[in-house]
Amino acid sequence: MKKNWTFTLFLLSFLFTVVACGDTSEQIDKNKVENQQTSEEQVETKQADAIEDRSGKVPLDLKVADNPAFPVGSKVKIYANHMDGMEGAEGVVVGAYDTTAYSVSFRPTDGGEEVKHYKWVIHEELEGASGDPMEPGRELVINTEHIPGMRGASATIETAEEGPVYMVDFTTTTGEEVKNYKWLVEGELVAP
């Protein structure tokens, strides 16, 4: 009789442990799914922010360049380091426009650290920009999202460069394909 009682107690303890562990693993699995969904949402949001500018859309009032040094379809080699793997990359011009390009400094609206001498924001991407090129030191609001936190940020113009700007498709020196990269100026491109 004592053996039956011990066996029953052992069996109940075992079942209790299995049930309790089952609930825990189910809770752990549920937490993993929730965390994974949150992570995926954060990544999608960051990717959406980061690639908004890769759409190929340009401001409606942006004028197509009449006689650019690198017409659409030209193969180019890039001599700029706006991003990792850009310097020395080869690509194809997919847009050429007459405007003024600015390097700007700004504090991102998403709370990031100040970005200094960001290249390039064009005249048509600045709120309140008049017809004439802006002088260095002028403050304006950025109305584009080349990088997260840019749209709506107050920016100070550091330099201005008049002339054609180019939108380019290229493959970085590390193998990443980049479509509709905005913007490169003529001095940053050469024929390969």
From TrEMBL:
Top-level taxon: Bacteria
Coiled coil: none
Matches recorded under InterPro entries: DUF1541
Keyword Signal annotated: yes
Signal sequence region: 1-20
Keywords: Signal
Gene3D superfamilies membership: Domain of unknown function DUF1541 (2.30.30.1210)
Domain DUF1541, residue spans: 72-123, 136-186
PROSITE patterns cross-referenced by the UniProt entry: PROKAR_LIPOPROTEIN (PS51257)
Pfam families: DUF1541 (PF07563)
Name of this protein: DUF1541 domain-containing protein
